[in-house]
Fold each of these.
Amino acid sequence: MDYYPAPGRNHLFVPGPTNVPEPILRAMNRSNEDHRSPAFPKLSKSVIEDVKQIFGTTAATSFIFPTTGTGAWESALTNVLSPGDKIISFLIGQFSLLWIDQMKRLNFDVDVIESDWGAGADLALLKKKLSADYAHSIKGVCIVHNETSTGVTNDLAAVRRILDGARHPALLLVDGVSSIGALDFQMDEWKVDVALTGSQKALSLPTGLGIVCASPRALEAAKTAKSLRVFFDWADYLKFYKLGSIWPYTPSSQMLYGLRASLDLILKEEGLHNVIARHHRLGEATRKAVHAWGLKLCTQKAEWNSDTVTAVVVPSHIDSGDIVKIAWKKYNLSLGVGLNKIAGKVFRIGHLGNLNELQLLGALAGVELALREVGYPVTLGSGVAAAQAHLQRATPLITSRI
Amino acid sequence: MDYYPAPGRNHLFVPGPTNVPEPILRAMNRSNEDHRSPAFPKLSKSVIEDVKQIFGTTAATSFIFPTTGTGAWESALTNVLSPGDKIISFLIGQFSLLWIDQMKRLNFDVDVIESDWGAGADLALLKKKLSADYAHSIKGVCIVHNETSTGVTNDLAAVRRILDGARHPALLLVDGVSSIGALDFQMDEWKVDVALTGSQKALSLPTGLGIVCASPRALEAAKTAKSLRVFFDWADYLKFYKLGSIWPYTPSSQMLYGLRASLDLILKEEGLHNVIARHHRLGEATRKAVHAWGLKLCTQKAEWNSDTVTAVVVPSHIDSGDIVKIAWKKYNLSLGVGLNKIAGKVFRIGHLGNLNELQLLGALAGVELALREVGYPVTLGSGVAAAQAHLQRATPLITSRI
Amino acid sequence: MDYYPAPGRNHLFVPGPTNVPEPILRAMNRSNEDHRSPAFPKLSKSVIEDVKQIFGTTAATSFIFPTTGTGAWESALTNVLSPGDKIISFLIGQFSLLWIDQMKRLNFDVDVIESDWGAGADLALLKKKLSADYAHSIKGVCIVHNETSTGVTNDLAAVRRILDGARHPALLLVDGVSSIGALDFQMDEWKVDVALTGSQKALSLPTGLGIVCASPRALEAAKTAKSLRVFFDWADYLKFYKLGSIWPYTPSSQMLYGLRASLDLILKEEGLHNVIARHHRLGEATRKAVHAWGLKLCTQKAEWNSDTVTAVVVPSHIDSGDIVKIAWKKYNLSLGVGLNKIAGKVFRIGHLGNLNELQLLGALAGVELALREVGYPVTLGSGVAAAQAHLQRATPLITSRI
Amino acid sequence: MDYYPAPGRNHLFVPGPTNVPEPILRAMNRSNEDHRSPAFPKLSKSVIEDVKQIFGTTAATSFIFPTTGTGAWESALTNVLSPGDKIISFLIGQFSLLWIDQMKRLNFDVDVIESDWGAGADLALLKKKLSADYAHSIKGVCIVHNETSTGVTNDLAAVRRILDGARHPALLLVDGVSSIGALDFQMDEWKVDVALTGSQKALSLPTGLGIVCASPRALEAAKTAKSLRVFFDWADYLKFYKLGSIWPYTPSSQMLYGLRASLDLILKEEGLHNVIARHHRLGEATRKAVHAWGLKLCTQKAEWNSDTVTAVVVPSHIDSGDIVKIAWKKYNLSLGVGLNKIAGKVFRIGHLGNLNELQLLGALAGVELALREVGYPVTLGSGVAAAQAHLQRATPLITSRI
């Protein structure tokens, strides 16, 4: 049953939830099973182990919570920090804002470093603050790797260099919700202490898993962290990991089989390196289209360009919400609206997850049509052509078909 | 399990099998059931009755065979004709050729009216032959409504006018495999005696149902037709229709539930009139793209343009098969090859079934990329832009979303 | 892919997760969709509203959390209570124990009323404590409606009578994880303030939804409750309910479509009253089988009999875990083990969710075989016969088939 | 959407269509794909090759027709015989009757050897006829391996011995619709010339594939056989086998992926030998139950007992159709009715396909309840107990779980 049926496929170009490919739908098409049977730990261990590859870690411990990204945030914070702890966090868009709001409600002492929406984290200011913090009163640095509302990717390697340069022991907590599994992520190399993502983004699964990886240092911190947590407590998971039954409460077998299929697609069939290259290719193509349309990115500098979502600024006389509406009403194209202070000013094209070149080109053609509908005089085909030109050069043969 | 996995969706633009939309996949996602239970006739009767709407008939009787289009052909011919019967048939492409081949093997005396591949049926010659047939020795006229290999749609109303003009009693048999459910089809108005289609085309189902509609005259003819048939015999169906158990042998419940879902999509959700308009819109858009690319249609005159498949002629130094290959290998785009005597000379873009504007535009963008790969100097975006321009004008708001 | 494949169906008779019927699997067999589209609130509102029927409430507000029962517990407690609040809770088995453990970790002052595992809540003691609490220092009474580990159902109407008799204003919080949707539950009549369940039990869905209903009094209490909560905060939901976008973070569309299908099965197709009667019938049949086997229920008195799970005590020389193991290894039958202090002493037969008489009889036959395997001299067919005798009398014709 | 919904699983115990297990449903849960892509021959060749294992042949050539068993019959007959050919066929029940009817309509000269319904083929008479046929005017012997209407399995090895003993060159054609993949079948050893089955029986697939295997001798005979065939002509398949594109017309990709999954379950996961042993075990258990009920098998001698279907004779004052009706109306149990001359006199329990012990025991319990409903004084549990006793002895541990 569909509430607003339309012929053909929905073109899902919000920056998550993303398209669920058939192999994942197939893997999930199953009844429940007994999570206490011997079969279950086999499945569980395989995904708990393999999911670490998309985080770029062998050293960390992963926790797969039956929750969303918001729950994963809460798990990350409460397991390593104590109420009153001073933390630095960057406000660069709606999702960093929401995380900061959560931090405050969890009673941390948040030093918010704000940037324009469209800019990346102000790392110069971070450097200054860390350098000045001789007492190491700053317990954590929290950063969103990819700000989904503005299409801004922060440079985590640089954050690590700043922490190391200041010889500062603060924990590094990273929201990788719209990056991990799509963008290069090196948890071990960047010495990220807690990283997290959600299932409905790069993994192309339904919503329902909040995946958190904790470095050995984070696990150590968890032992003394005083924030209250029960459902989100890593300690319960660690206890059941030891027991071999893995789960402190009933997991979703469907989601775990789905995760297994997703990891197989990413790690075995396509290869993580190729997945990341594909996201870069699609991101570049999208940006070239935006340029050809004569529009500007919300992202203020190329160094912050996001390969998973592109936020496009519309001329001031146009309401970006109208573009999103007409795209859905006429072309069955789902775009992202502008959120909060950039509502009406930007629309967003998500290009992450299990997605390919022609799907993107179809969507870009749809954006052009929607732009025309709201009165923006785009040259039809212009963005598509620019994207095509890039893709022609950048797209390799499909590995399995060479 | 996929043999040649690739990220993202397969872009299925062969002229059948077509994309199976999620509501149909959902309807079919079920175990077997007892076809002798009281539930089964309810389902069966509903589809046997409603499927007639896409044939444009209330007078005819429908038969849903567990077979393919080839089987439906055989059922159509053997139920109304006798060995040695003289019939006229038009050879205008690969599928009419295959049907004629079947006619010959079934021992009919086939008078083949051949046209160039790319031309429609030579109706002038038909007129002449019928007019000359004072003895009414011609028992049937067999015509493919839409020749899938060349993208040619024949004018069935004109055929009827010729038959009526000649006051000729020959039965009119129509292959509507790639037309019925997508193109306007008026079985009653055109006094078609036998019309048939297959499930994997406009109905967007898996292969497996060959659907045949027989006019009252055809049913009458069936009583005396001497062609041998058992599996494909209408009489067995008619017997079980009367008994209320409908099926002379075990049907596929999954396919019937799928057909029910397909008919709901076409007749209730979108509306048959809108479905046909959508096919016309997508057909026009495709032809405009071909023109913009500087290429020619295989279809020789606009009156024969097909709204379900477009066959594109490539320059003589290019092998159209290479376009199809690279589209699949690099862009996960499935196009139709040229068949038989036009192999290497044309490729085909199917645009039928449950499909929308942006899916088509993505595919057209893919064709442009494939053309470039084989050295044809297409201007990227040119065909997309031409198609977009048409679609912008011709596409209505999605009914459920107004 | 299955880790321990076996021919035929798995006989899933753990007391949750339960069998997911085909209509729910079909409803969930879909890709992601944009949760910000106009379609989403339609679906969301329908389930948020209709789910209240299985709670027996029109007055309460429902919250559908992407979590498990454990998360629902946390949401229930933290939204209406403050740290240090004195609450009474009943320890009668493993799940009440786990909830109490959570209460303690959440810093409530829990007065635990313990019973034997197999007995119900000690309501006499509750009465005494409430009567003595002139100061109304007790802020909440927390009770598990149906203790899944022992097969004990508590009498909630009696609890309400005691509270009312004592004119005590304590909030009444009820874990209905293995009861709501299967047992009679009258939230409004019993003046339950917070009731909760999980999707993988009576609703026959995958794990992933923790559903909490809050009475007007509970909502009022939530305004001043000082327990820290963010992910589980009702206030965020209430804010988005008002805005009409419903969800403070991304929901699982698949689970919501599944919930819609589940509610349709329960409320429309079978009827809640019939669902409850069916559970009673299956529970009685199971208990008659246990008696015929010469075994004892863990449940100590008939008044506490559970219609969703039966815990069976095995003779002391037998390890109940061996029964569970051999049932799975030889007959693909999944039974529940004994938990914690009754490990090895009881095994459990879950009989809740979308399940019918012959499924149960097959499982009872399997239990008999497993009992024989471990050396218990059960008469084959004895329990089945006892259950059959009851079912023959108690089972009505299937409503749709009369 | 279900027409007569009922809680819990349908207990499908008709002798086909059979239960489709989840791995097959998952494999089939997919959109269409281009059958001309390079992926398709890979899949096609794998199933064309592997399906021969369930026929017990390496020498034969297999043809997978998009049809039903009835179509497979027609394909078998028309490819190796010519009109007027004298053939011997055995009439022992409804399905042999229907096949004979088809033979007559196809203009063969059928010498029908009739037996009581419940008896096997009269092989003594066959011997006599063959021995007397010095001229070798008998071109074929057609036999149903397992007569689905009466639960009678014929001894094919004996048939071969008789043919060999008489040094008679008649072709041996076998209907294995309800046997192949469930009963021991040795096409090569028994020198069967044409054997056939349908997908909805032992293979546990939906209806839609008619699978025919032809021995080298049969292929040779096909070269000169004069029966008219087009859709069912092996020659077209052989042509496309050589070309490597395999299919003369569009196949169902879903059914082929399903067949791949089915063969994997049978050949790899369980093992064909174990599958056959399981069917024997379930058949024996069912027969022991019938005996315990005080009822008689339709099968007249033990040597003809069928391990895929048991036909049970009811006392003369009972209408077996009432048993089938009440089983469906009250217990969601689907049994087979008596067909044709044994209508009302027998009901049938199918026990083939992907099925296990406890599923069968649940169904047997249901049969007992249905028997009581129609007034037959069965002792509840008696048949279940008899079946259990057998299964306890005969059932091995599940291979993957040892």
Amino acid sequence: MEALRDAACAARGSMMMMMLVWILLNAAAGLSAEERGMVEELGTEKEAEESHRQDSVNLLTFISLLTLTILTIWLFKHRRVRFLHETGLAMIYGLLVGVILRYGIPAASYHNKTPPSCSLKEGPSSTLLLNVSGKFFEYTLKGEINFKEIHNVEQNDMLRKVTFDPEVFFNILLPPIIFHAGYSLKKRHFFRNLGSIITYAFLGTAISCFFIGNLMYGVVKLMRAVGQLTDKFYYTDCLFFGAIISATDPVTVLAIFNELHADGDLYALLFGESVMNDAVAIVLSSSIMAYQPAGANTHMFDASAFFKSVGIFLGIFSGSFVMGAATGVVTALVTKFTKLHCFPLLETALFFLMSWSTFLLAEACGFTGVVAVLFCGITQAHYTYNNLSEESTKRTKQLFEVLHFLAENFIFSYMGLALFTFQKHVFSPIFIAGAFMAIFLGRALNIYPLSFLLNLGRRDKIRGNFQHMMMFAGLRGAMAFALAIRDTATYARQMMFTTTLLIVFFTVWVFGGGTTPMLSWLHIRVGVDPDQDVQPSGDSFQVLQGDGPQEDGQSKTKQESAWLFRLWYTFDHNYLKPILTHSGPPLTSTLPSYCGPLASCLTSPRAYENQEQLRDPDNDFVHNDADLTFTFGDTSITANGASASRTDAAGGPGWSANGKRSGSTSEEALERELDSREQELLSRGTRLVFPMEEHV
Amino acid sequence: MEALRDAACAARGSMMMMMLVWILLNAAAGLSAEERGMVEELGTEKEAEESHRQDSVNLLTFISLLTLTILTIWLFKHRRVRFLHETGLAMIYGLLVGVILRYGIPAASYHNKTPPSCSLKEGPSSTLLLNVSGKFFEYTLKGEINFKEIHNVEQNDMLRKVTFDPEVFFNILLPPIIFHAGYSLKKRHFFRNLGSIITYAFLGTAISCFFIGNLMYGVVKLMRAVGQLTDKFYYTDCLFFGAIISATDPVTVLAIFNELHADGDLYALLFGESVMNDAVAIVLSSSIMAYQPAGANTHMFDASAFFKSVGIFLGIFSGSFVMGAATGVVTALVTKFTKLHCFPLLETALFFLMSWSTFLLAEACGFTGVVAVLFCGITQAHYTYNNLSEESTKRTKQLFEVLHFLAENFIFSYMGLALFTFQKHVFSPIFIAGAFMAIFLGRALNIYPLSFLLNLGRRDKIRGNFQHMMMFAGLRGAMAFALAIRDTATYARQMMFTTTLLIVFFTVWVFGGGTTPMLSWLHIRVGVDPDQDVQPSGDSFQVLQGDGPQEDGQSKTKQESAWLFRLWYTFDHNYLKPILTHSGPPLTSTLPSYCGPLASCLTSPRAYENQEQLRDPDNDFVHNDADLTFTFGDTSITANGASASRTDAAGGPGWSANGKRSGSTSEEALERELDSREQELLSRGTRLVFPMEEHV
């Protein structure tokens, strides 16, 4: 009853907000029409003021949209609606406002006036001077413009105003999203599945990119054959499309996973993959762009240009990685060696600035800021986080949470808006149909073969239902959109942009909305407490599934991966953590004796005092929702006893005895390592191998 | 010993950061020189990339500066250095980088090339088309340019790049600063001194503005007489200078007050005045701008234009006020009637967006966003704050704290930078000397006469030492700078900008640094616990000072002000708080019976359940520093027993019995009002008077 009243109130509020948006937009249109008459007389000052007012109205429109989205999200959460996620919602509101902008506001209020033009023989320079009877005015280049569009430059002004500079997405909106992703990676699950995540993200994205690129090239040829193509569309354009559309963004899926507390490993696989393949897609697309000019006019395959592109890919990726990790390390050192934790405000500000400077530093050096920020986030979460004061850890987490939330919803509502307000859409039914087919096939070629290969080497198999869920979770989102809108100058790019937009809409609404039924249909366990999930390591669960014989066959591979993991873990625990944080064993005990003075200088006094374990950030992981309700009563029965295993694991210590043998979770590794000194000697012997390992 | 080591480490770190900044800047210069050769060939794409890289380097420079500032602030706080505040520090670092940019980077790397120009007969339009052999390019107007500057458009590119769009200060950096100020006003002290604050802020700023304006007009006439003036400088320009330089910003002083826990009333007077006079100065300066065109060519006094300006002032100010308060009220209603407090993230995001939309809404309607944001902050703190969940109250406070901190330090380091990198400085010794004299005299004419008048009506006098401290605390800061840089097109404005910059430097360094000695010299009590300070109301303290006879003489005035305060308080407590928050008495008991259905609809269910008092946000006021050290041992002796009174008040209940008679603090009013019903009936009888009161 009360809930109904709330809902009614909220609905009324939403209506009022929509009306407000409408009134604002109309007012803006009216104002500009009215004041436009005076502009010519009062000159540029008045015009600047008007432009500023218009900007305010535009931003206000977006903010109203976001406010509306937030209120509706609340309503949905309140009523436990899961068929539509907040991002989908933001898109719908964006669409509505886009329709209003496009069709609702009378275009007659603008006069059709062609701006003055002048001719020059030289190519366009960034700055142009205009001499009006002795007075000089400075103009900046905005971009090339089609001849046929010249006459509606002014007419389209309103719609164009709403169009943001695409670089805003890359430089302002994406960094907090990606940083937050890196910062909130559930590290234990992430590191446990690191090999698989990297395989999916690198190899899988590459497969998907080249498959989609080639298939689309076929589609483009078909279009040319049936006369549907009106302008150039090169092979590299197709590959570029493959790169941008291969960046998955299962934000909707993951939000539901988080809410339902779905399986931690699956979550880690999906989240890790999507975060990493965003990075891969950015670098891949810029490598393909770099390939383009090399081939002169042919746009055909050229081996040297190809290897150059591969080189660029590796260079940019590793450069960005190193830059991100380095800033993270510097922040860790600064927060360790200053006593900044007495002043949480300073600490938070420093943390924020250092994270941002990673982005800028990478961009200034010609690397990719977004990728650097991702690795900075991971490094910060792993080291710096432990040096921050209790209050700052909360502050930074919440700060980035809010920024992430706002940025994400902004991008999605902008996407909705862009469908109607973007000026240069090229809808091509054949291309769109081809692209939809291509992304599904590309995703399948990524997930199934790679899962098969990975399962050969994995102790805990990626089961069929996990694979289907990963296939299903191949949504496209913010990154694909941002990459597509970055350059919409040519016909090919415009067609790609339109298609990308439609793919994002479709996948977010249909796949995003279908996540909950799909989870139920695939019998994936939900209601897993992430803290308790730690105890039953992957294989103890496997055993319960009756996969025992298979496990024995994999013992060698298992040993190998465990050895790799242990190497990294030991190095990190013995050297990196003591250097960069206040925890871990004192360096004086782990470093050889001739490093004595250095070791004692680097070791924190606290390391001697409390040899206690690092407090693990995973435990602090903030869950947005407190409603841990199990909607699927059938899961406990159908999921092969998964729920039973969970209960047992939480209750009885028997499993940990079993799990001890396998030695793969970090807790156990830590225990073992603290128990025996031999292992440390072993790792000391192989220290030369570490520099490679360090970057994994 | 350890502190020394820390200091040494931090100093080394600072050196390294400075070197990094230097390297970055040189690298940027080198890069651009190197790549500039290729620009012509590869066209605009390459140029855009270069420009993006340059932007990144610039931002990175600022971020490095801020990082450096934070580290040095830490060092200063750590070592309890108080002669230089963080803002002064930020300016110094800015100055250093400015010097490097100006003199350190070889200008030879740029070629002196005049950009292409073309001629038109019409006036400049915002958009210009360029026809280069059939291809059309769109250009946007950047601004007018001096003929003599044409040849170094490219040469100055580096320095100009560092120059931010002045609107950035108004639209991005000032709003969080001002909002935070409003949001963190210590409300009890603020409301207690509201009358005085408004008098200083409105009347005082107007006096100061007109005095400075007229004095400067004399100075300008003198300059013309001695031939020091090379261009036009009107009377309205002088008034404009008076307006921008009248905005005080005692950020340094207040930070020290906060740290030393100086007297709460003095803090409220200074803080309230500076916050409000920022708002007054903005509106005043735009009113003066509006006056300018009305007088055609004469620029002399014109009664109708003057009254028009006064009308504009009142219109803009009240419009901004209403807009800010309205958004605050809407947010309060939304947070009250939705159960958003279950989802702190949504709540914080909503709060942030609503506060921001105040700014945009006001700008879109032609009012002043900064002023609206101030009143929005005050309203939010008074109502919305109480509806937020425990976590959100913390989150929002911290979020705005960080934003405020970053924005403020950014502005101050930019000021340092601007001294050397701004291109159009006009240093005029006579004008500067005149301005310095004018601001001191203007401040004196503001504080002393108004204090005398206010003391006639005040129960607790503003004593001489408070007046001297207020005089001393007349620093100029962010607002004066932002107003001065907003328009630097004419010669007069350039001279004003240069002078403003120097005044800011001088006042922040000298007066800011002198705050601690000054407090000691003026015997102003420090170490006041703001929570305990509540109990001894102003007059119980007065009595202790032996001002008894004087107090009797003021009993009528005292009654009046108490009556006004009580009216507002009762209205707020009985109607506004129950409508806008979950607390206060249920509306069903305060509203007349015929409003029954409305009252029960508006009253929160919680209001019936717990008639407990509003939790007062002042108690949650976050102190940045935990070091409550009393540096002034002599204060307890010299401050007329102030410390003794504090101790007594905290210990014994005798004072509250005494204080009950006066009935001016909100606690006591609340108590009384809950005790007796008659008063409520009284307030019901005078309800028609309220609409005026509501806006105070």
